[in-house]
Design brief:
This protein has 282 residues and is α+β, with helices and mostly antiparallel strands. The chain has helices at 5-8, 38-47, 128-132, 166-180, 189-196, 198-220, 228-255, 260-270, 275-280, and strands spanning 18-24, 30-36, 51-54, 59-62, 71-78, 85-91, 107-110, 117-120. The strands form 3 sheets. A 4-stranded mixed beta sheet has the order 2-1-6-5, covered by helices on one side. A two-stranded antiparallel sheet has the order 3-4. The chain has a two-stranded antiparallel ribbon with strand order 7-8.
Length: 282
Amino acid sequence: MTLPAWLAAIKFNDDGLIPAIAQDHKSGRILMMAWMNAEALQLTAQTQTAVYFSRSRAKLWHKGESSGHTQTVHDIRLDCDADVIVLSVTQAGGIACHTGRESCFYQRLDLSGQTPEWQTIDKVLKDPADIYYSSDAEKATPKTNETQAHDVIPSDANHSHHDTTNRSILQQLDGVLAERKQADADSSYVASLYAKGLNKILEKVGEESTESIIAAKDFANCDENSNKAQYDDARHELIYEVADVWFHTLVGLAWFDIESDAVLNELGRRFGLSGIDEKAAR
């Protein structure tokens, strides 16, 4: 296919991609970085809404297709080497990052101490669970640097991410899932699952389990040495899908008023037992 002159002028990389930086139209703040191929860039120009390319899924994705946080494009610029795109955008909802923050670049390197340390400087504007689990539409899953995997952990204004232990994350989830059982079905994704009943929850557990199996198969076929970017994307994809399995399993447990501690205690009981001894003790 012959590209129009303006697209032909762009130096796409060996994978046919170019990095695209989204910048707030008014403030000038950098919101996110994603990848585009020629088709994504052409659609972005035609629709004046941001369309990117997911490397892990090898397909186009429209910014905001799962979160509703679309980007209206006002201006498209190409750098002097013709290998980087900058988009001037209006970000719907004021949230570009999957973590519920304004920008994906919310960590700043603090050089004031003896050892440089990354600090989180932006607050979460909206709980990611309510962003990405707010409807019954199929979740888009471009798990790469463009959007990352959406968090299912409730935000906590009193605790930074690095102060949160795995155990406290599960305890926070227990609390949120218990609250959602009493919430209006239209208020969140989890509340809508509860309203539809146990069969729907179990259906989601099965669906996410299947997706995690597919992700594991894809990851197994990747070679870190031959294609590091593809390897990293596939690894992230597997982690993302397993997180979805865990999350929906916790929703299922919460249906029966079983907290995550019950599972942790059972794992603790098994720790140190051989598989044969454990099976015999059942």
